[in-house]
Specification:
By secondary structure, the protein is mainly β. 1% of the residues lie in helices and 42% in strands. Strand 22 and strand 23 form a beta hairpin.
Length: 503
């Protein structure tokens, strides 16, 4: 017998190019990750809300009050909520101006080369502009701003007493703001202050009610020199990184009399959406309109094995709804994006930055993400307003998983130079799980790369240690499907393959 490994040796999924050009790789997946080179399912999820929040969640933020109790704020398209002392509270301010509903797409050309010549475009090339929440904490209290409302809001947790039941505008703070952020030096920064899309304004140190600069305080403002407008900001190490619609600036502390300085980092690298930016201790990374950028003091693009899967399918008009998250335990960054005609994220892509490989999927559909730390498990939201604890349970116990199972799909495999049929007589398993069977192998065959697929059978591993089978194909593809009840690991599955005659 001639046993050969039929599981790809290289971890991760590659979708760029054609199936045939990806020979020896996985080309599709769902609910799977790779860790230390081996494939396994992602963790399942449980609901963290007894009933859905009102409106599609857009942003999440977590911190601790002075007593050490965890607090979480969630901004949706209609409301502002806090989860505090195990209670969800609607703290939406009086006279809140909610974001507009999704605008009509209208007419517009789509991106060249993305769809077949001569066919009607499935979508417009016009992007819908979406308002956003920015959430941060001022000590133990929440500060928040929704770009549709423009006010800088505060909510006091009052760890020693009674928390506020509603948020309110911060006294003397500018209005007409795009967002906010708190610096490491304890200044509250307004982005796009006073309806000026390029203005950065900050309060006095330790006093978010003093905004007029004087010789006795450290309040101030700066104007960005950019072609675009300020859309978001994120803390990274000691600096504030300012994202405009087309570039990146660094805001750094320099002390009196100027307090803060601004340095342009790069242009033409804007994030696809304000929630598509992820900050880790070592680097920042974000999705652009056509790729990925990482910044660790130096700007550089990331070569993505799944570029085509994302950017050939993303719903351009709603691409600004793309949301990113960090899963530090597994060394992963995940992005959720709308594809097809979905107006909310319905696909995801995961980059494992420790091992530099990618996976994709469709079952996990989230609109925002919050890593573990303040809370034990990562938290995420879906478009229906549900909040979930991720990585907490088996996939089988996860709500709304339906009939979806974790799987990996290989590109076609060949014997010799593809001019001979391959006869498969036996399969040798290599997997780890508590209860067999935990994997099913589904095989399809083609006479050539463009030929029609033929179903060659489905096989389950059992306690015998091998599976007898018999089928022929010139190009052989395999789909590995797991069961949702098992936390399995896929090893080097082998097959007894014999070269036969010419096709």
């Amino acid at each position: 017998m001639s046993y050969i490994q039929i599981t790809p040796q290289k971890p991760g999924v590659r979708t760029n190019g054609t199936d045939y050009s990806n020979m020896g790789r996985y080309i599709d997946s769902d609910l799977m990750r790779f860790h230390n080179g081996n494939a396994r399912p992602i963790g399942g999820w449980t609901k963290y809300t007894s009933s859905p929040l009102d409106g599609e969640p857009m942003s999440m933020h977590a911190w601790q009050d002075n007593a050490g109790d965890p607090v979480m704020a969630v901004g949706t398209r209609t409301k502002l909520y806090v989860f505090y002392q195990d209670i969800w509270t609607d703290i939406t301010p009086t006279s809140f101006v909610a974001p507009e509903s999704n605008a009509a797409l209208g007419f517009g050309a789509y991106l060249y080369g993305r769809e077949d010549y001569g066919d009607a475009r499935s979508q417009s090339g016009l992007q819908t502009v979406f308002d956003r929440w920015s959430l941060d904490n001022w000590g133990e209290d929440l500060v928040a701003c929704c770009s549709s409302d423009g006010r800088l809001l505060t909510w006091e947790s009052n760890s020693g007493g009674t928390a506020d039941t509603i948020s309110a505008a911060i006294t003397n703070a500018p209005t007409g703001c795009e967002g906010l952020i708190v610096t490491n030096e304890r200044h509250l920064v307004a982005l796009g202050a006073s309806d000026d899309p390029r203005k950065i304004q900050w309060s006095d140190r330790e006093d978010n009610t003093t905004w007029t600069a004087s010789s006795t305080n450290s309040a101030g403002s700066l104007q960005l020199t950019t072609k675009g407008k300020i859309v978001s900001a994120i803390r990274w190490q000691t600096d504030i990184m300012l994202f405009t619609s087309n570039g990146l600036h660094r805001m750094y502390y320099q002390g009196q009399p100027f307090v803060y300085g601004i340095q342009k980092v790069a242009e033409s690298i804007g994030a696809i959406g304000s929630e598509a930016i992820i900050s880790t201790s070592g680097f920042m990374v974000w999705m652009t309109d056509n790729g990925f950028i990482v910044y660790d003091g130096t700007i550089r693009p990331i070569n993505s094995d799944v570029h085509d899967y994302i950017f050939d399918n993303i719903y351009q008009s709603f691409s600004k709804k793309t949301a990113g998250g960090h899963n530090a335990e597994w060394g992963e960054v995940i992005w959720f994006f709308p594809a097809g005609t979905s107006q909310s994220p319905n696909r995801y892509v995961i980059w494992n930055y420790r091992e530099n490989h990618w996976v994709v999927g469709t079952t996990l559909q989230r609109t925002c993400w919050l890593d573990s730390g303040i809370f034990v498990y990562p938290l995420a939201a879906d478009s229906a307003g549900e909040i979930y604890q991720q990585e907490r349970t088996s996939l089988s116990d996860s709500p709304d998983i339906g009939s979806n199972v974790p799987y990996l799909q290989t590109a076609p495999m060949e014997i010799k130079q593809g001019n001979l049929l391959s006869q498969v007589n036996e399969l040798l398993p290599d997997e780890a799980c508590d209860n067999l069977p935990c994997l099913t192998l589904e095989f399809t065959g083609k006479p050539n790369p463009l030929g029609a697929s033929t179903n060659l059978g489905s096989y389950q591993f059992d306690d015998d240690g091998y599976i007898s089978c018999r089928f022929n194909a010139a190009q052989l593809s395999m789909k590995i499907k797991g069961v949702t009840t098992e936390n399995f690991v896929i090893g080097n599955i082998r097959a007894d393959v014999i070269p036969r005659g010419r096709r």
